[in-house]
Amino acid sequence: xxxxxxxxxxxxxxxxxxxxxxxxxxxxxxxxxxxxxxxxxxxxxxxxxxxxxxxxxxxxxxxxxxxxxxxxxxxxxxxxxxxxxxxxxxxxxxxxxxxxxxxxxxxxxxxxxxxxxxxxxxxxxxxxxxxxxxxxxxxxxxxxxxxxxxxxxxxxxxxxxxxxxxxxxxxxxxxxxxxxxxxxxxxxxxxxxxxxxxxxxxxxxxxxxxxxxxxxxxxxxxxxxxxxxxxxxxxxxxxx
Length: 240
Prior knowledge:
Shape: globular
Radius of gyration: 19 Å
CATH topology: Rossmann fold
CATH class: Alpha Beta
Largest sheet: 6 strands, parallel
Structural class: alpha/beta
Number of helices: 9
Order of helices and strands: HEHEHEHEHEHEHHH
CATH superfamily: Glycogen Phosphorylase B
């Protein structure tokens, strides 16, 4: 089983494409009252009266958090905004503390950059941060499927993400989000969304509908049922 066509290999055994999914009723994705969102975000010192650009990812070099800060600095030249870098680390990643330190050094001296190291189980906080965001980023250098895109799109947030791994399956460029391939390109896309709120809103709405149709757990269950049926009746299948 593979989660994206690009992950398939030249094997003699049959391979099946089943993309991951999100649970819309989980703490990370369920609806939150606006008052709760405001309370959580204010607790992090974030000003919700000004635009907020957010990346939710573990502090890993492949998520390019320092590159995200470079994007923010380019955007900030012409557009007022704040940057939120929120996430945790992996217990099996010895480079994590060094990456976090590099991020903190790159952010030093700018009160509009919020570096949040979240403990495990911070699903409600992540949910609130995404809902409070004006634009959500995922500037990965490499990526698996990357469900943080679907999580943000499910909340109606416009997303700018790297065109790597399984991300392009979740984002149709210019329809349900924007894909980028460089720091300058990412900064351009973020500025566009900050300056064109109606366009940003439309991307968010299209993205939510795309996730509803393709990346919710209900679709995941259907795919598994079809897989089991195909295995049960594979001898009866006639290929034309």
